[in-house]
Amino acid sequence: MFKIRWCGFFIIIMFILPKISFCSEDSCRELEPIVISKQKQFLLNTYSTEPKETQAFDYQSSLENLSSLPVDLQSRALESGIQTDFSLRGSTFQQVLILLNGQRVNDPQTAHHNSDLPFTKEDIGKIELIPGASSSLFGPDAIGGAVNFSLNAPREKKTVWEFGAGSMRNGYELFSLSDRFKDLGFRVSVEDAQSKGFREDTDYKKFTSSVSANYEFGAGSWENNFGYQEKSFGAYDFYTPGLGFLSREETKTYLLNSGVSLSGNGVLVKPNFLWRRHYDKFILDRTQLRSSSVNQHRTDMFTPGVYLQKEIGFLGRLGLGTEWSQERITSTNLGSHVRDRKSVFLDNNLGIGEKWDVGSSVRWEDFSGFGKVYTGSLSARFKFTLDTAFNFGISRSMRVPSFTELYYSDSTTVGNDNLASEKAWNYEAGFEYKQKGFLTGVSFFLRQEEEMIDWVRSDPGQKWQAKNFTRDNVFGVEYVLHKEFNRLFSLDANYAYTDKNIDNQGYLYKYGPNYARHLVNTVFSLVLPFGRQEIGFNYKKRPGRRGWLLMSSGLNYNLNHNAKVFLHAENILNVEYQDIEGIPQPGRYIEAGFRLQW
Predict the structure, then answer these.
(1) pLDDT by residue (tens digit) across 360-387?
(2) Fewer CB within 10 Å: N-end or C-end of the chain?
(3) What are the Cα distances from residue 69, in Å, to 53, 131, 427?
(4) Which domain holds residue 25?
(5) Exposed, middle or buried: residue 470 (CB in 10 Å: 0-12, 13-18, 19+)?
(6) How many domains does the chain have?
(7) Contacts of 410 (CB under 8 A, 6+ apart)
(8) What pLDDT score does 80 carry?
(9) If you average pLDDT over residues 275-290, what whole number do you get?
(10) Is the pLDDT of residue 569 over 80?
(11) What is the domain-level CATH number for residue 463?
(12) Burial class of residue 527 in the structure, from the number of CB atoms within 10 Å of its CB (0-12 exposed, 13-18 middle, 19+ buried)
């Protein structure tokens, strides 16, 4: 009863606070957009992508924009928005924190569903990559880092209609309508996508709809977003590579995100609330529809929270926040479970003279069944000259096991309800140099993992079982380059090298070695009078396997300032490769489309 009242308390606050004035009529001003809710905060090595930066590719899904950044996207389908895992700096797919407008949305059943974000590319405006030391600021699961999806607040009148069709009988249609009445903006988006697949049991259907509303008033703004998405797709060997199972998976996702931003007299107040419900029906072998082959799961996650930040002279910007989260699952395989998380955190952003920027944070987490944990971070940037800076960072992060790791069981896999939480120390140091039209930087990182969780077995005849391991050491280097040669031509490139030293103790690992040891992304952009054109190259190599080079391109022709046609091609060289060993990926793919915006 107390938890229900506490949750209701935050909802009431979000209705009342917009009516409270934090400043006089003369001093009130429109807030600057705060992309990550735990900010404004100093962060190391944040990469970001926006539609205007990758518009020539005209991807169906916003997730595919991440392919130009140093993140390892491990996709199992033709379109990344169907089923994609995230890996940062050699992490497993479970060790990346996914944020929506700065709020945690990781699926408690399994991180395989973390890409189930029920919003279209018209809703998602910016995606930020926060690897390593700074990411622990945002809470659990950020062992390798965090990915933040920021939704566009509807502030203008705009209508978009877009459709595309491609090889493998793939197609989609998108409609989005935004408008504004005085201080109230709203947006409605609908998308429908389908494909027959590139081989047996790789077809899919996806439907997404969303509603957003943004109310701006003297002291700030109140933003509300609701999304619904359903998917149905062939899942050939998705989780059992090499066994030849014709699997099927159907998911539904509901997500409500609401938050208020109030600012005045150096004080920032941000109450927020997030609810996510996820349905998952998975058939391991659809040729034998026995009860043991069909799993149905429903998860709910509630997260209310409040964040306060104040400018305090020589102490800089000091923030205080609290969150309460509850995760529930009802499952034919995993059973019924409920767990709570309470969190209190402090963060600080301080400038020391003209040379130093320092950011710090400390969090206290209390998990039901896993006890109390302290995490935190300390980051610093020293500006050697106006163009040159050195960065340093250290952080402590943690992750509790998913419900799947704790309780799942089938003919190939068994969970472990005695698992302990993972913990990690992240260290990094870097250098950056930037001038107008040019940026380059390098970062060295070291991560020491304790009680890492993976699925292991002693020989191929055994089941995979979830198990904790004592320690892993992960070392790596990241390099980034941006160069504008002139008004028409530019180059963006990054390279990441990662070496993961795993004490295998005689076990075979299911996920541990499946990271990108070498990851290279390069995009050449050319702006012509009739539109923007891009060519991209992606090279990836995993330990013990040959690497592969993929080539892509995006060609645009603007019919007028409201309409354009586009041609998008992936894997132009028709390379045969397996992002996840045992699961072949599609060959050459070409898609053409039309976009009308007014």
Answers:
(1) 999 999 998 888 999 999 999 999 988 9
(2) N
(3) 12, 11, 21
(4) 2-597
(5) exposed
(6) 1
(7) 284, 292, 295, 333
(8) 67
(9) 85
(10) yes
(11) 2.40.170.20
(12) middle
